[in-house]
Amino acid sequence: MNTQEDIKKIITDFEKEFQVEQWCIGGIDLWPLIRNKLYIHFLSTINRKSNKSQHIDTVQIATKNTLFFYIKKGLSSVWVLLKLFFNLKPKKLVFFGSHFHRVQHKGKMFNRFFDSMVDYHSLHSLVYMFEYNGIKGQLYNPNAVVDIDKILNAYRNILKLRTRIFNPKKRKAEIQLNGYEDFLNRIETYGVNAESLRLTTRHLEQWVEKLLSMSVFFKMIFKRINPQKIVFGGYFGLDTLHASMIAANAMGIKTVEMQHGPQTNVHLSYSTWTKFPKNKPYNTLPMEFWNWDLPSKLGIDAWAIKSNGVSAKLVGQPFLGYTSSEAENSKVEKYILYSLQTAPVFDFQDMLSPAIISVIKGLNFKWVLRLHPRNNIPMDIMLSLIEEHNISEKVTIQSSKEINLSLSLQSSLLHITNFSGCLIEAKLIGVPTLLIHTLGKEMFKDYIDQKEVFYLDQSKSNFLNDFDKIIEICNKKNVESKDVLKVYNPL
Fold this sequence. Notes:
Layout: H1 4-17, E1 24-25, E2 28-29, H2 31-47, H3 67-87, E3 93-98, E4 102-105, E5 108-111, H4 114-120, E6 127-132, E7 145-147, H5 148-166, E8 175-176, H6 180-188, H7 201-225, E9 229-232, H8 239-251, E10 254-258, E11 288-291, H9 294-304, E12 311-314, H10 318-328, E13 335-339, H11 348-351, H12 354-362, E14 367-370, H13 379-388, E15 395-398, H14 405-410, E16 412-417, H15 422-428, E17 433-435, H16 438-443, E18 453-455, H17 463-476
Parallel strand pairs: 3-6, 3-9, 6-7, 9-10, 10-11, 11-12, 13-14, 13-16, 14-15, 16-17, 17-18
Antiparallel strand pairs: 1-2, 1-8, 4-5
């Protein structure tokens, strides 16, 4: 397994071999959860140097506490939930977003996907923004923001108190996992440890129990708000998202994923789904996908037609449209913008390779290294490596939260990435992109045209010369904003 095409073949072969569309526990369709987990695991395995297994969900280990502890926590949690429920009002939209979706904009932390639509179409009083992974800084439209992690923790505390006092019997969920043990044996042949990746039947039962418990909470919330749509900035990877989607789908509320990165024909969260439950869609998938560009939409259209309910819509990238006038009025010296990835798929040493360092030294341009919104590489490591190679005068590290991407791209002569979805955003506003990793070449093969999207192999001896030729092409190009830069109205 060396490429994403290899991953795609392996996973689609699983779909041919096993009745994955029938796997469910307690009415929860499991294949989307399992498929996404395997895809992320395999993708990490291709590049990371260690073989430590990773998993998406977390089943917390219970700690021993006194009854007084549970009563104290439970009573304070009851107050938190009552305060929430009394304050909740009917709204037309509920957005699920995270701090890493936010950027500094006019002194506020601004969700670049959702707040763009809210502000442009004056929807401030019609929405809730359920924020997960913590709330930081001064937020835009703060009256709409709900700290969903805080509320969920309060709900869990009440459940723990109820369990401690009444010790209710757990209802045995109906299990439909025909052929699943054979499947576990098959994935072991690809080096997957089902125990460490939490894919055993026991782990799935624990996972479903957790999701069902959380979905009860979200059903109560959604019943009170009565929204038309639930919109996610990414639908997979967190139990909070899975549980809220299960609840909304069960209630007949339209669930939507807003594109937040690459959605290509090798990204298995968005492409090549081949099996679906009979006469219904998966209840662990969104019912609608909002896409930045036509290739992303067409990739979902190809399988959605067979899904019994899933559809895709071309809406553009709201933040690019929202900030386009600000970016066009910017007059700065052009630089080379390098969109970085995150560990463990890439280390900083991998991204600042000998070939890239030789280009930085060999060409008379300033470079801006733009951090990924979920950057987990310590700043001191990055600065140390930059100083070690004596390129400090040419290189600036840019926070994705402090400078908006549209402005950063418009100020760029050339955009470089390994496989970042910023490529699509750059293409939307006419900025050329150079891919410098085989993963990017594979992921964006349908975008490479040698005019706006290029690929160079860093291992080739003529890398510097070919890079210089691309710079010449960029210097002759007049960047013009495209007609797609509109701000979609989510209602």
